[in-house]
Amino acid sequence: MTSKAQGAPTKEFFVGMLTRDIELSDAILDLLDNCLDGVMRQKKSTNNTKSSDYYSGFFSHISISKDAFTIEDNCGGIPKDVAEKYAFRMGRASTKVDEGLPTVGIYGIGMKRAIFKIGKSAVVYTRNANDLYKVTIPEDWESNETEWDFPMNDLKDKQLLMSGGTKVAISNINPRIIERWDTADKLDVFVNDLIKSIQQSYSFIIQKGFEITINGQHITPLPIKLLVDYKATGGAASIKPFLYQQTFDDVDVSLAIGFYAPTPSPEEIDDENNLKRSTSDAGWTIVCNDRVVLYNDKTHLTGWGEAGVPQYHTQFIGIRGIVIFESNNPRNLPMTTTKRGVDTSSNIYAAVKDKMRQGLKMFTDYTNRWKGRNKKERTYSTAAQSVPVDNLIGSREKIEASIPVKFRQNRGGFVFKPSLPKPETDKPFCRISFSRSIDEISDIIEYLYKDRNHEVTPSQVGEKCFEIILKKAQSTEGE
User: Fold this and answer.
1) pTM for the structure as a whole
2) Which CATH superfamily is domain 11-218 in?
């Protein structure tokens, strides 16, 4: 007699593996991604995502308390047939529901993963066209191994989701999550951290009109800007960004890197805590279909410390870059399943990374070349204006009409390489840096200035000592 060995996964294993490796904030971002994909479905007939007001009029409101989590939007809702056949399955079916739309959902697990990460039960209300219904995830669903489907019921409440949209109400919050929300102070900390994550990940979308609130607090974007010298035209040396564009099959790529602020002086580098800008503002930001998947990265993932590019140092604090990938087939975008990282195995990303390093090296070389000559360098960087990155991406014709740049064809793509200023005497410079105790530095200050409390920075003390010794060394040359 032939028998069978069971091979089906248990729900406990399935849910545990699904939620184990994703952070709580990332799970919530998955729910926001679903809202944005709803906008895409709503506007598929006018799907120009590059327009500056593409998401205007759409919102997502998040409410978090110790006992419940709710997210509600007006982004069109889930079509009833999609809910019945695809939306609540544990993984995307082979049928291409959003084919031809620049969404970010790939694997069909975001909403379910977020629900189970936060709680054990939920009700999903949705209104799409003339359909209003709810899907219930009961508290005992995980313990029932024979039933994988969820109850689905029509509703008649005319006041619910009147503009069309979805409301996900999660209850029976998991104990580990309650520990992070069970006091007002803990909840405030979590909400503030979540706001920062949303600002970083959805800045482009918020700038294009999408409204996000958490417990009634509106979230503002973190716009990226770069310096452009409008006065310098033609091939004149000036501060401008490095720009690159290329299309790989169905993936459009736009890249811009440059200075968002003047290069720091040695005194600013020594006292980074008092800089008007922060290291957290520098680095590469990677965007896939308007969703930021990597924010201000300064590691080898984005070219730092490899192929002739130096590792990140505070002297490069003024350098910032952005790469935007756009495609109607999100599977071709170089992002990980959590949409919070770059897929380094992507052939497209490998090709683009070469250009990232090329642009990055231009500005690290510039910074090194001007070491010790900040006053002179500032005549160039302060002549430049801060320009929103929106003016540096998109149509080449639009970019060339708004700023003094000219793209040239380069190996299948288009590139603008700025002619950056060079010092009159381009001798190599090297930074001298070391630490000594405050008492020892005070001894030197007293020796040099006859006043132990004389106001002078440690860098200026070191420079003064160097000048004294250099003068003695040069006076003895030829002896």
Assistant:
1) 0.77
2) Histidine kinase-like ATPase, C-terminal domain (3.30.565.10)
